[in-house]
Amino acid sequence: MSPLLRCASLLSLLIILTPCVLAALEALQQEDTLQAAAAFALDDACLPGNENSEKGACDLSLRQLRLAVHSQQLSQHTQNERVGSDDPTSEIDVVEPGVAAWKQCGGKDYVGPTKCHFPSVYTCTLETEYWSSCKPGSVDAATHSEDHTSLPVPVHRAGTESLPVHLAAPTVAHTLPLGHPWASEVYPKHKGFTLWLVEEFDKPLDLDKDPIWTWSDGGLKEGQVRFVKEQIKFQDGKMKIEVRANHGHQQTCSNAQSEHVPHKPLVAGEIRTRFNMFRYGRYEVRMKAPSVQPHNPNVDGNFVSTMFVFRDASFKHWREIDVEVTGRAPGAISTNILTADYQAKWKPSMQETDYPISYQHMNVRAEFHDYAFEWLPGVIRWYVDGKLVREKRNDRLAVPDKSAKIMMNLWIYHDAKPFVPFGGKHLDKDRFPMYAEYDWFRFYKWDGDHHYPPADMSSKSLTGDDMYLTSNNPCDGIPQIGEVLKYGKKLKPCKATCR
Question: Which residues cross the membrane (predicted)?
């Protein structure tokens, strides 16, 4: 047989076998995952009658089982990297070459040379206010060495009270971020941050069973909408939140509220993470705000379309960082920070708002735009299409330092008298249905935060304060913890049932 015919025959055989090979590889991958998942199912958490097990913990899809296995692997990796101690309760931090390390050079107060040296352990070069490039060894050794492959060096806090050391835990290398990323996508990198969670919204999320995301059943007194799951739609490779007339959603009580919310004329949607486990990092979304009238994005109306972080125990610690797009103008974008303690109702003193962009050439209803904010200790920076539009530091209102949930929603303000034109003056021009569209969401964890989110994405490591009234959704299986403190009185959350 000629070499040419031999090559052609081999090529034909390869074409025939390729689907089989790929199927076999996928089967092996699923088998490994299912074997690990079977071990996970034998854990005590899955035994019948275990009161501490989360609802549906043992009734997971293959995708969710992969996340469960991945979480266990992350947790085991972190435990293996940590160094043992005689005191099991002591905190031990690990420095890794090239990783952000908050305050290991004095942090934002460091004004000395570009290099600092923690005795006999490592040298750090201050790259930015919140990012240092670190490697083991002395200043002299570091000057003559470019080796960044050394193993992490353990650093104990004991005896270092005089030094402002607060170091990052090891950053685990992810093959892919959590959520639902594209395997072939090359995602942007940001120095000092690690891509942790991606949602492409190209396939529907099961918001009843997804281990990270759920839906809200809330309702704002100031708004005209009740949030319901059905208004969060996944279509055309995007997540769409729809607002329309309410034809029958009568539930009047939310499990984290101490009072009833009256019937609302409209229904819309709110997607949120299940727990207060996100803190310092970079939050990004690509979204398009609603047109208040079909095919006419130039008409001003009333709506609030959002991406934000929110600690929703407003009766204890209210913390919020917002990107809000409103119906008051084609380019109306607002950036907000809210903080209050033991305050049940909103007051102007608890909020700082800035309108960084309202350009005539920019129509956030007709086009998709990228919105982001970096939340770091003592500073927040907001970006639109990659451009820095606002920086907020500790002043009248302190930058939040408590963990929170990630949330996205769409709502309409009410028309009570006197009318307060939040969201836009022209409520009468709204036509329904109305849609906010989300192309993707990304969360980059700041490498200097070694508490949030937990490495295994488990709520077991969250504090009681983190878990306080953690959910306002009676259908998601998360139990309520604590009582509502309102006007100095302790009230139990009102009871609600799944529709």
Answer: none
